[in-house]
Amino acid sequence: MYKKYKIIFVNIIVLLIIFTIILIGFFINPKLDFFSINNGNSVIKDISTYCTKLKNSSNKYIGTNQKLLWQVKLNNAKDVYNIWFAKLGLAKAEMNLGGFDEAVSIIEEVLGSENFQSLPDTSKIMTYNSAALIYIKAAEVKNCVIPGGSIVCQLPTDNNYKQDYTDYSYKAIEVINEWLMIDSENLMAKWLLNIVYMSIGEYPEGINNDLLIEVPGQNLSSIVTQFTDVSIDRGIYTVDLAGGVIFDDFNNDGYADLITSTWDPCSSMKFYLNKGINGFKDITVNSNLSTQLGGLNIVSTDYNNDGYLDIYVLRGGWLMEEGEMINSLLKNNGDLTFTDVTHEVNLSDFAYPTQSASWGDYDNDGDLDLFICNESYKDENENIIYPSQLFNNNNNKFLDVSVQASISNDRYCKSSDWGDYNNDGLIDLFISNYGGENRLYKNLGNGLFEDIAREIGITDPYYSFTSWFWDYDNDGDLDIFSSGYEYGIIKSIESFMGKIDLNYSLKLYENNGEGLYRDNTQGLGLLKVHSTMGANFGDVNNDGYDDLYLGTGYPAIDSLVPNAFYFNKEGLSFVDKTHIYGLGHIQKGHGVAFADYDLDGDLDIFEQMGGFYLSDGFTNILYQNSNNTNNWIGIKLIGDKSGKIALGAKINLVCDNKNYNSIVESGGSFGSSSLMKIMGIQECKNIDKLYITWPRDQSIQEINNISVNQYILIKESELGYEKIKFIVGNKIE
Predict the structure, then answer these.
(1) Is omega for the bond preceding 156 within 30 degrees of 0, making it cis?
(2) Residue 281 phi, psi dihedral angles, 5° rounding
(3) Residue 453: beta bridge partners?
(4) Contact 607, 551 (CB under 8 A)
(5) Helix, strand or coil for residue 48?
(6) What does the DSSP assignment read for 247-295?
(7) Phi-psi region of 171 (alpha: psi -120 to 50; beta: other; left: phi over 0)
(8) Half-sphere exposure of 187 (CA within 13 A, CB side)
(9) What is the C-alpha to C-alpha distance for residues 31 and 710, in angstroms, rounded to an integer?
(10) What pLDDT, on the 0 to 100 scale, is given for residue 309?
(11) Where would you tag: which of 15, 135, 245, 324 has the fewest CB atoms within 10 A of its CB?
């Protein structure tokens, strides 16, 4: 009887704690609606309330109440099965929130219980699965999520960089082997076993052949040091969850700075100012960005056409109703500070879960318009919930013209990109949808758009994520890339083994020069499956052809698959060089961006890492490119009629009777690359002709006889060019 009343008493205390937390949140912000942020026409615009709301909830990613609720279940459990179930849930909740010692203690108590062996095999499998992930994640945090530790989590593994602390990894091996004794063909179990052996430097010799999964390029006798993680050396160290990155010049001194965001609604954006040979300096607080919390993605723009890059912050992705969060437009004041102008420009009256947005001058009036890619769906009455939106920029005020323009993407939109696919001088809009056909909205030139994706056969893959227009074959027209996305990793693992599910595979559509496309994915060697979240492109070896880098992952802790790098072989094929270049990181990669941060003429890569659970943060990575031998030219454009940052301008140069093409754009949907273009030109010694097609009126500017291996500045309103001189140390170069 005493035990019964004790349980009741404990439950009452726990419930009182939960109620108290809610009351505290209410008194912090009395207007907060804990059930819906976007209640009718009322939109909460104080982004700090999102932290309070989600932290003080049962949100599966960061809600602290999830532990309390599992504790209540455990206190009420009266039989072996329900006690096991509650303890397993509590252990996973502790892991999700970063309580690894507590999670390990609970899971070991479950495994060591005298009643464990009496459980059905399905329950044992669930336990071994959870235990393996707890041990693997605890080992990762201890070995990798420390300054300089990221290399331990990059494939191929090297015995010089294996884990120093291996106790958790050996425990993971033990429970995975128990798992496989019950379920010998479980692919997830086999994969996790391979990953653990890689991390301790015993792959492949430590694994039985029947359990071995060969990762392409993993067993290499020598690694080309094409890319080196220099994050710590250059003054960049932060542990983030999934987020975005802009790798570009925010004070117009020529150096590419870094601004990142994180999904965590309680953590702020970061601003790293590029100080040249002195590395990067964290100026987050002084820039006013410390008040900008959360942000699954950020994209660059110049909405007011003053020549300084502004920032648009996207929030709420993956959260559905809990993700009814307001986005933010941040004005660059020109003095390394930012001001939130969301309300001032009429972008504050909605709060939808979203992940991406794209900027472009679709009406050719000289300013940048905005498309917001929301996670839309239809309810039981066919009403569109969280519709995607097209905003027309009119004198720095934005008007939603989605209905008038006939852009009504009612699908779960993941990414979008503007590009002139048919070279008619009007930019069109490609939209990538998850669990629905992709769209290509053709710009009709009268403010209207028409979806022609099905008509020209570019609706796949069915489960899409990151996408973009690009000229992968350097022929002067825009091709389309759309990455398939698996909410999981099984199909990615199967892809290593040669089994491809077309609903989730990469897609590359080749433009024939007349606005018609053919699926050339398989012919180019890209018929692969990767759980691609963040991705981008850039010519890392300056041969004139853009290469492809994919950041992989999905929200769950078990998402442990290597990022992927594909080398573009002169537009004829793509070759997987992930591991030979040292780019196969197994943590979750979200924002990816390219820029020449050290001004040596080749593109470096920044990747914003991290997952969605509080425990799944990771160190962001700056990969320095150090193995380029080809010539190059760096070009900065300043528009006049076309807009200061010249977004959408086309560049064509002729060198040794060969054409090279590029477009001023920020690249992929999750990560904004530098708008200062680095164009690789192989062994060309002198550029014969350079043509700029300015986006507003398609006027062509011609410049002759340009020396290579230098940065130049070209203005729409002036003839010729000037060499850009950068301050490097105490001298001008």
Answers:
(1) yes
(2) -120, 130
(3) none
(4) yes
(5) helix
(6) EE-SSSSS--EEEE--S-TTSB-EEEEE-GGG-EEE-TTTTTGGG-B--
(7) alpha
(8) 13
(9) 56
(10) 98
(11) 15
- Please name the residues in contact with 669: beta carbons below 8 A apart, sequence gap of 6 or more: 297, 356, 358, 373, 414, 415, 416, 417, 432, 466, 467, 468, 535
Q: Return the bridge partners of 371, or none.
A: 358, 390
pLDDT of residue 219: 56
Query: Rounded to an integer, what distance in angstroms lies between the CA atom of residue 65 and that of residue 20?
Result: 12
DSSP label of 207: S
What are φ and ψ of residue 322, in 5° steps?
-70, -15
pLDDT in tens, 398-444: 999 999 999 989 999 999 999 999 999 999 999 999 999 999 999 99
Contact (CB, 8 A) for 676 and 255: no
Q: Which residues pair with 573 in a beta bridge?
A: 569
How far is 374 from 388, CA to CA, in rounded Å?
5
Residue-level pLDDT at 35 = 34
Task: Let me know: does 659 contact 474? Beta carbons within 8 Å.
Answer: yes
What letter represents residue 68's amino acid?
A: L
549 SS3 class: strand
Give the model's pLDDT for residue 515.
87
In this structure, what token pair is assigned to residue 353? 């879960």
Q: Which of 563, 576, 560 is nearest to 526 (CA)?
A: 576
Contact in structure between 98 and 66 (CB atoms under 8 Å): no
Burial of residue 513 (CB within 10 Å: 0-12, 13-18, 19+) is exposed
Whole-angstrom distance, CA of residue 294 vs CA of residue 313: 9
pTM reported for the whole predicted model: 0.92
CA distances from 228 to 231, 274, 549 (A): 9, 18, 15
Length of the chain: 733
The reported pLDDT for the residue numbered 29 is 42
- Asked whether the beta carbons of 265 and 50 are under 8 A apart, the reply is yes
How distant, in Å, are the alpha carbons of 258, 281, 298, 620 from that of 231?
12, 12, 20, 8
* Burial call 657-683: b when 16+ CB within 10 Å, e when fewer: eeebbbbbbbbbbbbbbbbbbbbbbbe
| pLDDT computed for residue 33 by the predictor | 37
Reported as a single tens digit per residue, the pLDDT across 455-480 is: 999 999 999 999 999 999 999 999 99
Task: From 536, 565, 533, 567, select the one nearest 552 (Cα to Cα).
Answer: 533
Contact 474, 661 (CB under 8 A): yes
Residue 79 CB burial class (10 angstroms; 0-12, 13-18, ≥19) = exposed
Question: Would you state the torsion angle of the CA atoms of residues 294, 295, 301, 303, taken in this order, to the nearest 10 degrees?
Answer: -60
Quote the crossing angle between the two packed helices 100-111 and 121-143, to the nearest 10°: 150
Q: Which residues pair with 338 in a beta bridge?
A: 332
**Using CA atoms, how far apart are residues 371 and 303, in angstroms rounded to an integer?**
13
Give phi and psi for 450, each to the nearest 5. -135, 130
Picking from 63, 193, 165, the residue whose alpha carbon sits closest to that of residue 558 is 193
Distance (Å, whole) CA 690 – CA 733: 23
pLDDT at 587: 87
Return the CA Rg of the chain: 26
Residues of the chain with pLDDT under 70: 1-42, 156-159, 217-225, 727-733
Helix, strand, or coil here: 379?
Answer: coil
